[in-house]
């Protein structure tokens, strides 16, 4: 700090005359500049630019400060001017430098070199290479995970599932061929009341009888029964029993009647096994022309007077199976001629009286 203005100083001379503070301060600072140049040479040779700046600042402050302190309290020192205090923002007038709160003229040469040092700070602009972090944008290649979406091609394996639809073809009516329907109409082993679904044939078993008759089996579709004694590999057969008073019968539709009938022209007749007792059993092959309009046929006669073509069943044994073949050519007695290409149903009637019959393996031949 500077001593008070009233204190006596031993070494410096008295303050400058009134109105000349700047010139005298500058004159007294001149020896300091020379000393500064000598010191700067030593420091600069050691390539310590920043140390030079700081050393210069200290020496100048010491010298200039001493000059300032020697000035009279009445001297005028404008802030920012050479040898005076720096401006509040540590700035000085043009060409001066703020060092330790005083504005000094450090001269050209060496210090300007340190300004070059600030240029090295410009190399800090190399931090712009941090902009290579933009390569982080390459993480957009992570979007390549969209190729994982290619796993959707695995979904194409679903088309393999379409091969399953080919398998569905196996479950079609042709699949029933595994049972070997062929000429078989029904062997009753399925126990479901439906004929074997094959060769364009579909249908179910049904029964009919007057109110005075007793009849079994009841319901539609009419179901088969287990055989008391199996017939070879056959475990089930159609079992019908009761008493016929006016009419009674059981039969199976061969197609989706009344809209579609069945063309049996590929066959000669029907065949089946039979066992039991009945007064006058017959087999009936109904066609559209002999079926009453009441049920969808084309016979316009009163319902009970429409008669189907039939053939008697002979040689029936009470306790033994008999195979019976009925050629279509033997069918007669209908209200219209038999039409082999227009088959509606195949039916069995026991005849008036009590009956107990078993029928198995109905087929074309």
Description:
22% of the residues lie in helices and 23% in strands. The protein is of the alpha+beta class and 365 residues long. Strand 6 and strand 7 (234-244) form a beta hairpin. The longest helix is centred in the N-terminal third of the chain and has 25 residues, at 21-45. The chain is rod-shaped, with a radius of gyration of 63 Å. It starts with 20 loop residues before the first helix and ends with a strand. Residues 1-47, 55-75 and 108-178 have low confidence and may be disordered.
Distance between the termini: 138 Å
> Which blocks of ≥5 consecutive residues have pLDDT under 50?
1-47, 55-75, 108-178
CATH superfamily of the largest domain: Galactose-binding lectin
- The level 1 CATH classification of the largest domain is Mainly Beta
Gist of the model:
With 365 residues, the protein is of the alpha+beta class. The chain is 22% helix and 23% strand.
Topology record:
Layout: H1 21-45, H2 49-70, E1 97-99, E2 102-104, H3 109-123, H4 152-155, H5 157-170, E3 184-186, E4 205-209, E5 214-216, E6 225-231, E7 234-244, E8 248-253, E9 269-277, E10 282-287, E11 309-312, E12 322-327, E13 343-349, E14 353-364
Antiparallel strand pairs: 1-2, 3-14, 4-8, 5-7, 6-7, 7-14, 8-13, 9-12, 9-14, 10-11, 10-13
